[in-house]
TrEMBL record:
GO molecular function terms listed in the Swiss-Prot or TrEMBL record: 3-dehydroquinate synthase activity
InterPro entries to which the protein is assigned, alphabetical: Dehydroquinate_synthase (IPR050071), DHQ_synth_AroB (IPR016037), DHQ_synth_fam (IPR030963), DHQS/DOIS_N (IPR030960), DHQS_C (IPR056179)
Organism: Flavobacterium proteolyticum
CDD domains cross-referenced by the UniProt entry: DHQS
Gene name in the database record: aroB
EC number: 4.2.3.4
Domain 3-dehydroquinate synthase C-terminal: start-end pairs: 176-319
Cofactor: NAD(+); Co(2+)
Taxonomic placement: Bacteria, Pseudomonadati, Bacteroidota, Flavobacteriia, Flavobacteriales
SUPFAM superfamilies, A to Z: Dehydroquinate synthase-like
Pfam families attached to this UniProt entry: DHQ_synthase, DHQS_C
This protein's name: 3-dehydroquinate synthase
Length: 355
C-alpha cells in the first residue's frame, strides 16, 4: 500500500514500514528505545515487532494493564517514573505498540516527558489504525470523562501492519469498523457505499478500505490540525457516543462498551437529529440505521440512562461557550459542524434508536 504523507510525518504500511523504522532508529538519532505495550500486545504483538525491528539501540519494554479504565494520569505517572528509572533522556524515543489507549496515552506521555520526546505509533487494532494513531491527538481521560486532558502533537511516524489484525476478536474488528463507516458518512458517499456488501469483502478489499479510511482522516486533519474548523467533522457520532461510552464505563451495573460500539450508536442517534433538522432524508437515515445495526448489536437504554447520558454532554470537550456542539450530516458524505440540539430532540433520538 502506498505511503500516506501527513503534515509532519508519514504513514507507512507493512514491510515498507519496518524498512523506514530501521532508517529512523539509528544510534546517532536516539539514545534508547522504549516500547510501550499492554498485557495483550506484549503477548500477541511484541514478538512480531521485535522480529522486524532492526536496530543497534538498547530497547526497554514498559508494560501496562489493558483497558480504557487505565487511560488516566495515574498510569501516566507510572510510565513517567519508569522512563526516569530506566534512564530515558531527551534523545530517547517511545514506540507505542497497541490500540487506542496505548496510542493516546503513549503519545501524551512522550509529549510531556522532559518537555517532549519523539514517538512512533504502531497500531495493533483496526480502530487505532484508522483513527487513534492518526492525526496527532494524544491524551487521557479524567475519571470517566473521555479525553479531557491532552495535547495535539504529531508522531515521528505511523507504521500500519495489517498482520496484527489476526490477533483481534470479531468484536474488536467490528469496533474499528465504526470509525471507517464514519469516514464515509462525513466525507465520501462512494466509500460509504462499499460497506453495503460488507460480507462479500475479502482481505485485499479490507486492506484497501483501511488505506482509504486513513487517507480520509489525514486529508481532514491536514486541513485543520488544531481542530478549529473542518476537523470537527470527525466528531460525528462522538458527542453522544462519548457520553454513552463514559456512562457505561462508570456504572458497575452496566457492561462496558468498546469505543466503536458506543460510536456506532452515537452515529445513529446523530443521524436521527440530522434528519429531524431537515438535512438528511428519511431514506438516508434508515439506510444508515440499517447498515450500522446489521454490524453492531443494539444497546438497551432506559429513561434514567438517557437522562444521565444527556447530563454528561456538558463535559464534552468540544463544547463552546457552555453549549453542546454536534457535527451533523447534510446528506451522506457531507457534514455541518458547530450545530446544537435540544434535550427533547436528543431524547427522541434515543427513543427512535430503540425500535
Amino acid at each position: 500500500m502506498q505511503t500516506i504523507q501527513a503534515t509532519n510525518y508519514s504513514v507507512f504500511f507493512n514491510e515498507t514500514g519496518y524498512e523506514k523504522l530501521a532508517s529512523y532508529l539509528i544510534p546517532s538519532s536516539y539514545s534508547r528505545i522504549f516500547i510501550l505495550v499492554d498485557e495483550n500486545t506484549s503477548q500477541y504483538c511484541l514478538p512480531h515487532l521485535l522480529n522486524n525491528l532492526a536496530t543497534e539501540i538498547e530497547i526497554e519494554i514498559i508494560e501496562l494493564e489493558a483497558g480504557e479504565n487505565h487511560k488516566n494520569i495515574a498510569t501516566c505517572t507510572e510510565v513517567w517514573a519508569a522512563l526516569s528509572e530506566l534512564g530515558a533522556d531527551r534523545k530517547s524515543i517511545i514506540i507505542n505498540l497497541g490500540g487506542g489507549v496505548i496510542s493516546d496515552l503513549g503519545g501524551f506521555v512522550a509529549c510531556t516527558f522532559k518537555r517532549g520526546i519523539d514517538f512512533i505509533n504502531i497500531p495493533t487494532t483496526l480502530l487505532s489504525m484508522v483513527d487513534a494513531s492518526i492525526g496527532g491527538k494524544n491524551g487521557v481521560d479524567l475519571g470517566n470523562l473521555k479525553n479531557q486532558i491532552g495535547i495535539i502533537r504529531e508522531p515521528k511516524a505511523v507504521i500500519v501492519d495489517t498482520e496484527f489484525l489476526s490477533t483481534l476478536s470479531p468484536r474488536e474488528m467490528r469496533s474499528g469498523l465504526a470509525e471507517m463507516l464514519k469516514h464515509g458518512l462525513i466525507f465520501d458517499k462512494n466509500y460509504w457505499d462499499k460497506f453495503k456488501n460488507l460480507k462479500d469483502l475479502n482481505t485485499e478489499d479490507l486492506n484497501e478500505l483501511i488505506h482509504q479510511s486513513i487517507q480520509i482522516k489525514n486529508t481532514i486533519v491536514c486541513e485543520d490540525l488544531s481542530e478549529n474548523g473542518i476537523r470537527k467533522a470527525l466528531n460525528f457520532g462522538h458527542t453522544l457516543g462519548h457520553g454513552i461510552e463514559s456512562y457505561f464505563l462508570e456504572n458497575e451495573d452496566k457492561t462496558s462498551l468498546l469505543h466503536g460500539e458506543a460510536i456506532a450508536a452515537g452515529m445513529i442517534l446523530e443521524s436521527y437529529i440530522s434528519k429531524e433538522k431537515g438535512w438528511l432524508t428519511n431514506e438516508e437515515y434508515h439506510e444508515i440505521k440499517y447498515i450500522i445495526n446489521d454490524i453492531f448489536e443494539r444497546i438497551e437504554f432506559n429513561e434514567n440512562d438517557i437522562n444521565q447520558i444527556i447530563e454528561l454532554l456538558i463535559y464534552d470537550k468540544k463544547n463552546e461557550f457552555g453549549k453542546v456542539q454536534f457535527a451533523l450530516l447534510e446528506g451522506i458524505g457531507k457534514i455541518k459542524i458547530n450545530q446544537e440540539a435540544d434535550n427533547v430532540l436528543i431524547f427522541n433520538a434515543f427513543k427512535d434508536y430503540a425500535v
